[in-house]
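Why does residue order matter? Because the sequence determines the fold. Keep that principle in mind as you read this record.
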Amino acid sequence: MQNKGWSIAINTININSNGFRWESNFNISGFKTTVTELTTGSSVISRVLGQPKGNTPFSQQTQVGQAPWQYMGYIQQGVYKDYNDVANSAKPVDNSDNVLPINPTTGVWVGDAKYKDIKLDGKIDSNDLTQIGSPWPKWFGGADENSQISHGSALPCSAAFPDINIARDRSALFGGQSRQL
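Structure:
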């Protein structure tokens, strides 16, 4: 694994007179991690994690040349708009690889999530999984303010901030079908 990154820190004393001291500190960092090889002899490792809110478990993949544990999922293209849209679009498959029927109770219906058919085979299955995001922030940082009176009383204040880079489409991360009411 290879890690490359950068970091910047700024520390200032804004006021230091008459028994009053005010300091400010700011830092920001970024890094990029790349998998250079895997000990498994394969160029890819996949894993399935959890089953959030009763939906389909989500998966992650580590691949040589990429950052570790990228989120895998389906790319949502919106929802099925009407019956013709459902009939003329790729539909998800069941556990036996059969395309779900057009049915508001037991299959696919208007208002259900519509996913991209990456393999262009008319069905949405595991072959349509793709990288949808990363668990690693592109950058993160923090800021501190500290005021102190000569008697020893202090008023510290801190904040931390990451770049949220979880998934391009969070609904794809947690899978499952969503219905409009």
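The radius of gyration is 24 Å.
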